[in-house]
Amino acid sequence: MNILISNDDGINAEGIKILAQEISKIANTYVVAPDSPRSASGHAITLHKPILINDEFIAENVEAYSTSGTPADCVKVGIESILKDIEIDLVLSGINNGPNLGTDVIYSGTVAAAIEGLVEGKPSIALSCDSSKVSSDEYREAAKYTGNIDGSTDSLMLEGNLDKLNGNILNVNFPTGEKKGVRITKLGRRVYNNVMDDRQSIRGQRYVWMGGDLEDIKQDKDSDIFAV
After folding, report:
1. What is the per-residue pLDDT across 42-91, written as a single tens digit (0 to 9) for each?
2. In what order do the strands lie in the sheet with 2-6?
3. What is the band of 168 on the pLDDT scale with cuts at 50, 70, 90?
4. Staple partner for 124: which of 95, 114, 220, 221, CB 3.0–4.6 Å?
5. How far, in Å, CA of 78 to CA of 33, rounded?
6. In the predicted model, is pLDDT for residue 152 greater than 70?
7. Model's pTM, two decimal places?
8. What is the pLDDT of residues 90-105, one digit of tens each?
9. Which residues 6+ apart lie within 8 Å of 194 measured at CB?
C-alpha cells in the first residue's frame, strides 16, 4: 500500500513526523508538505510562480519532500509530478496542531490537502487533534489509531475498504483525554468576534493585524463540535 502524507503545519511539524513514522510500519510512506507553516491557507494553488521542491529526511523508510507551495499544491504536485510513477492508494493530511471543526474547514489547509486528494481520485483523510498545544503522546496516540498500528482499535484507514469513502473525505478530530468511541457527525458552526487592529508602519504603510475570539454558541447534538 502506498500512502501520501501532507499537512498545513509544514514539513518540520511534529504531527507529520510522528504520523509518517507510524504509518511507515505498515505501508510505503511518502511525504510532500509545505516548507513552512501554511495554516488557514484554504484550497489555494500556485499558478503565477514556480513551486520549489527539496528533498527532506523525516525517518528511515519514509521518502520525503518539501515544497514552496500550499497544502493543495503539495498533494497535486506529489501525485502528478514527484511520485508520478507510484500509484498512491491513500492520502492522509495532518496530524494538525489544533482542531478542524465546523465551518473552519473552509479555511483549513489540512482539510484542503485531503480534498485535493479526492480531486486526484484518491481516498483521503484529514487528521487533527483538538488541542491548542498538542503533546507528542497525543500525536502518537492519534497516529496509532489512524493506522491501527497495535491492533487494539478500528482502523481509520479502512484497510481493504477504502472504496467505501465513495467520493467523500473523512475529516477526523481526536479529542483530548479519554476517547469514548467514534461518532459520524455533521459540521457545526464556528463564529468569531473578529478584531481588526489597524496600524501604520514607521514608513507610513498601513497594515492590520487580524484576530478574534471564538464565540460560545449552541451546537446541534449531531455536530462535530458537540461530539468533540
Report:
1. 999 999 999 999 999 999 999 999 999 999 999 999 999 999 999 999 99
2. 53-56, 62-67, 28-34, 2-6, 90-97, 124-129, 169-174
3. confident
4. 114
5. 9
6. no
7. 0.90
8. 999 999 999 999 999 9
9. 210, 211, 212
- Here the cell at position 49 is 510562480
Give the chain's length.
228
Of 110, 136, 140, 135, give the one whose Cα is nearest residue 125: 110
At 154, list the grid cell: 478500528
Q: One-letter amino acid identity for 69? A: G
